[in-house]
Structure formats: structure tokens, C-alpha cells
Amino acid sequence: MQKILVARSIFPDVIERLKQYFDVDSNQGDVLAADELKRRLADKDGALTAGEPIDASVLAAAPRLRVVSNMAVGYNNFDMAAFNAANVLGTNTPDVLNESTADFGWALMMAAARRIAESEHWLRAGKWQKWSYDGFLGNDLYGSTLGVIGMGRIGQALARRAKGFNMQVLYHNRSRVAPEIEAELNAEYVSKQDLLRRADHVVLVVPYSKESHHTIGAAELALMKPTATLTNIARGGIVDDAALVEALRSKQIAAAGLDVYEGEPHLNPGLLSVPNVVLTPHIASATEATRRAMANLAADNLIAALGEGPRAGQAPNPINPDVIGKARS
């Protein structure tokens, strides 16, 4: 029986599914340290991960490893050059979290614009003594301009929500989407600089890469309106968190909503000292239905890629399909 490692705690029923096909080594405790991850992968044919870094040194320590299934859409934790060189398949879990993540991005954006977290903290601190006309004045979403940086599946889901709020939609993407999608979403393709200047609310939904590192830094924040908000539901590193702290502290922009951070789970300490930011711990996809769908899709990918189950040999979501059928090198 082939051996697999489940590197992160997941739903017990998904573990039971995997046990129908594999000898499962399941880590249901703390995140594995790098050396422990290598040790436990040494005799494994496959692995299910949820953000663990898999690079050339990890692959070299696991000579039998043929597939790593990531329980996420993003796979910046995978060194894909190393995967390709070793003929190891990587898979991910797109689509199943689009709507939940878009819902959460919308909630973060609205909370930032309407100062919900800031006012709640003030209330909990016992400071509410009277109503005042200028108490926690925020900015409207309805009738405003939404700027989406990254018009993929989740970006398009956000733009669909904007129609119900009568918002103008601007977007910037590596490539322009099809005209019929633009028409459906009533979305205008613009440069990043134009979007930042014009948008009332900017949402980031781009995958992380070397090219997208610090897509939003000091220069970009300086282009935004002082009444604008910035929401990041993409990946840590897309935003220069230190520059954002300064922009929030100086009121260069009005507010921000963040679900992802550079170096997470560690935060830039400045983010904890500014009141005009909503902070959540990377939970945009965290509904039970969505996380179950992600876990089961990750299992489906692993089962199929290792030649088991009804879709044997046909993983639903290969990242680097060119290595399929090639011997491990």
C-alpha cells in the first residue's frame, strides 16, 4: 500500500477517506518544523499540505514522493521549478472557495469603509456615552467606485456583488478579460495607476509571485484617495505592510481590511497600533462547507494522482501537468 503524509490537521472523515487507499501518516498537531517534515516525508509516495514550504531540499529528502496536493488555491509555498526538475506533480483546489472568499472580501471592505471594528473596540472600552452626528463617519460603498486588482475567479465574483451596490467597477489584470465578461460585470480595464487614483475601494485578489511582490507599496498608496480603503484577501507580500502602516497612521488612506500578511502568522507590530485597520487571521475561505470542499478536493487530487479511485491517473487540478507520466528524477 502506498504511503502518504497529511501534513496539517484536517477533517477526520477526510482522513478516513484517504485510509481507504493509503497507509496514512496524519499530523493532527502543531505545524511540522522543516526537519520533521523532511523526516516524515522520507518514505512517502504523496502528501497533502496546507501551506507547508516544499522546495528542492524537501523533495531531495523524499525520493519516493510523486505528488503533493495543496489544500489551497495559491501554491506559492511550492517551488515549482524544483517540482518540475524532479518530475513531482503539484495540485491545488481552485473554484470551490470563490464565493466564500468573495463574501469575506466584501465583508472586510465594508467593515473598513464603515469603521465597524474601530467603533466596536471603542464601545467595548466603555467610551460610548452619547450619540453624536460626527461619530465614526465612514465612507459609502453604494454608488462608489470599486477597483479590483486581479480579475480572476474571485475578482469576478466580487465584481458581480458590486452590481447590487450600483458601483462602477475598474479592474487591472495581467491580461484583459474577454469582452463578454467585461460587459457582464460592467467592468472597465485600466492601468494600475489609474485604478488607484480613481477607486474608492481597492481589493487585491492576485496570486503571489516574485512579480506581484509589493504590488502595493508606498508609491502606490500615495496615488490613492485619502478617503479610499484597501482590502487584501490575496496573499501576504502583495502589500508592503510597513508602508501600509505609515499610510494608515498618516491618514494617507482612510482604512484597510487585511486577511493576509507578510510573514504570517507573525504581523508587523505597527498594524496592531493603528485603529483604522480591520485584521483577520487568514479566514476568507473559512466556512465549514467551503473548507470541507477544499479538503475533499485535495484528497481527490491525491487519490487520482497516485493511481487510485474512480479517476485514477486524472487528478482534477494539476498545477504542472507536463510531469504526469514521467519517472521521478
UniProtKB/TrEMBL annotation:
UniProt cross-references to InterPro entries, sorted A to Z: D-isomer_2-hydroxyacid_DH, D-isomer_2_OHA_DH_cat_dom, D-isomer_DH_CS1, D-isomer_DH_NAD-bd, NAD(P)-bd_dom_sf
Top-level lineage group: Bacteria
Molecular-function annotations in GO: glyoxylate reductase (NADPH) activity; hydroxypyruvate reductase [NAD(P)H] activity; NAD binding
One Pfam short name: 2-Hacid_dh_C
Region feature (Disordered): 309-329
Keywords assigned: Oxidoreductase
Domain D-isomer specific 2-hydroxyacid dehydrogenase NAD-binding: 107-284
Keyword Oxidoreductase tagged: yes
Domain called D-isomer specific 2-hydroxyacid dehydrogenase catalytic: residue spans: 4-310
GO cellular component: cytosol
Family statement: Belongs to the D-isomer specific 2-hydroxyacid dehydrogenase family.
Name recorded for this polypeptide: D-glycerate dehydrogenase
